[in-house]
């Protein structure tokens, strides 16, 4: 096994030790078909993609990390959500509103070949109300001949329209320069830095699992509401809560407290809330109603937390309603439907009676510790060497791919890069992940493993 001398994460191109410290967020807003997704793909396509091997990673992603001129930011594509949940207009407005609410700047996309429609006008009202820096993209300007149409969009009162062809790339550099000028260097609010400040917790779960009850129970009367930025309509509210002798920041609690009035589309709102809370959190406490059959929405929320790369704790609430029979089925559900988070600590609580509230903090701390674990390269390679010797990859087409060496490229969550002499099958990669967990723990954290094939 050739562990290279002095090899460390910085030697791998494109893989610095990126953590999940907050980056400025850009919301891409516009009515359907103006080319938002095409534009988002163009923007993130500039970045060298790292092939991630995490199960289920590609589904329903709305937040992407992007880089322009060396500056990193997050891109929220507000168009990627379940399109048929709400009526079209309500859907577009809701997406825009929530997207804008959580963003530091807005990229408003209009189809220049169509001009501004009533829906566009409605969106502009929402953007104005939010008062966030906004860049206007006049899309589908594929050639010189359509540039005049872009100029008409000056009349929208959002400043200079940047003529762009998301499809062909025309004008996207100028657009991104304008976007970078509009985005703050770092998010202005004090969500807390990685070191020192209170740890950031997202309390998530589908409606009625008991989120607000739990929040009230743990917070008591002592909570401090922070992040009410003067002069903005920014709605998410963070609360500082004393638990187990420490201060924790529960992010985005307004979304927990406020009852959503829409009945149709409540799921849709809940998903956006969850995404926005996860965006700001380090650890997610996923609440599940233990008295009811696990719902698809529960697993979807867990998947969101995993895909966001957050530490995860599963809290089974309403344990006071547990009986023998339910308990039996619950065990089966955990085995069958929660395999993707077998590694997450579980606590069985009751927000009503206060049962096992004291177990919450140790579970959160365990998950955060796993999330921040770093395995020294030498130790990792000693482990990989033994693993390769005792469990070699199956021979395929007369060849036997080998893991040559590996390194941990990042933490929060742990990310590994393995260098191999050939393609490693998914089954073998899962085996490697399982053994990594057996050896090093990683309780409460997703881990990602990418494989680079050395020719
Ligand atoms: P979204 O609904 O706003 O995300 O829009 P999409 O990105 O899905 O694009 C809608 C349609 O417009 C697709 O057929 C795209 O290929 C097309 N489109 C997007 N950008 C451009 C562009 O710059 N020029 C032209 N001609 N078509 C585009
Ligand atoms: P949220 O929508 O997730 O914020 O859920 P709520 O906190 O509003 O709770 C929904 C319902 O479940 C309310 O009627 C609560 O009183 C009830 N509830 C919450 N936690 C518990 C619990 O631990 N045990 C029982 N029996 N009921 C609970």
From TrEMBL:
Source organism, top-level taxon: Bacteria
Domain EngA-type G, residue spans: 24-187, 199-372
Matching CDD domains: EngA1 (cd01894), EngA2 (cd01895)
GO BP field: ribosome biogenesis
Entry-linked SUPFAM superfamilies: P-loop containing nucleoside triphosphate hydrolases (SSF52540)
InterPro entries, sorted: AAA+_ATPase, G_ENGA, GTP-bd, GTPase_Der, KH_dom-like, KH_dom-like_a/b, P-loop_NTPase, Small_GTP-bd
Gene Ontology MF terms: GTP binding; ribosome binding
Residues involved in GTP 2 binding: 205-212, 252-256, 317-320
Cited Pfam families: KH_dom-like, MMR_HSR1
PANTHER family in alphabetical order: GTPASE DER
Summary of the function given for this chain in its UniProt record: GTPase that plays an essential role in the late steps of ribosome biogenesis.
Family: Belongs to the TRAFAC class TrmE-Era-EngA-EngB-Septin-like GTPase superfamily. EngA (Der) GTPase family.
Record's subunit section: Associates with the 50S ribosomal subunit.
Official protein name in the record: GTPase Der
Highest classification ranks of the organism: Bacteria, Bacillati, Actinomycetota, Actinomycetes, Kitasatosporales
Gene: der
């Amino acid at each position: 096994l050739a562990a290279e001398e002095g090899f460390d994460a910085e030697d791998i191109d494109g893989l610095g030790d990126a953590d999940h410290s907050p980056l400025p967020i850009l919301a891409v807003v516009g009515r359907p078909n103006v080319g938002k997704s095409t534009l988002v793909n163009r923007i993130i396509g500039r970045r060298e993609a790292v092939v991630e091997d995490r199960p289920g990673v590609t589904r329903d992603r709305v937040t992407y990390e992007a880089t322009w001129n060396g500056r990193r930011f997050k891109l929220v594509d507000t168009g990627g959500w379940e399109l048929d949940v709400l009526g079209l207009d309500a859907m577009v407005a809701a997406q825009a509103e929530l997207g804008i609410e959580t963003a530091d700047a807005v990229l408003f996309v209009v189809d220049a070949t169509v001009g501004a429609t009533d829906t566009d006008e409605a969106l502009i009202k929402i953007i104005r109300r939010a008062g966030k820096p906004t860049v206007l993209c006049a899309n589908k300007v594929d050639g010189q001949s359509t540039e005049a149409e872009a100029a008409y969009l000056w009349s929208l009162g959002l400043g200079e329209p940047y003529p762009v062809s998301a499809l062909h790339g025309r004008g996207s550099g100028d657009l991104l320069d304008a976007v970078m000028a509009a985005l703050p260097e770092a998010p202005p609010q004090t969500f807390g830095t990685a070191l020192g400040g209170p740890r950031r917790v997202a309390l998530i779960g589908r409606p009625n699992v008991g989120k607000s009850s739990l929040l009230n129970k743990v917070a008591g009367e002592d909570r401090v509401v922070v992040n009410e930025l003067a002069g903005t309509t920014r709605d998410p509210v963070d609360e500082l809560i004393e638990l187990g002798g420490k201060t924790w920041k529960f992010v985005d609690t307004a979304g927990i407290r406020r009852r959503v009035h829409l009945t149709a589309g409540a799921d849709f709102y809940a998903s956006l809330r969850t995404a926005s809370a996860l965006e700001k959190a380090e650890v997610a406490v996923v609440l599940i109603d233990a008295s009811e059959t696990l719902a698809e929405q529960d697993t979807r929320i867990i998947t969101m937390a995993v895909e966001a790369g957050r530490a995860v704790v599963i809290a089974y609430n309403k344990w006071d309603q547990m009986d023998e029979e339910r308990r039996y089925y619950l065990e089966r559900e955990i085995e069958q439907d929660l395999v993707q988070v077998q590694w997450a600590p579980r606590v069985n609580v009751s927000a009503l009676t206060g049962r096992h509230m004291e177990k919450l903090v140790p579970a959160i701390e365990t998950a955060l510790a796993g999330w921040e674990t770093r395995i020294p390269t030498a130790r990792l390679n000693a482990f990989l060497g033994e693993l390769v010797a005792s469990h070699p990859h199956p021979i395929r087409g007369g060849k036997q791919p080998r893991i040559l060496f590996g390194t941990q490229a990042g933490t929060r969550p742990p990310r590994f890069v393995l260098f191999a002499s050939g393609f490693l099958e998914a089954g073998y990669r899962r085996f490697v992940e399982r053994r990594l967990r057996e050896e090093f723990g990683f309780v409460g954290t997703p881990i990602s493993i990418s494989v680079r094939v050395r020719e």
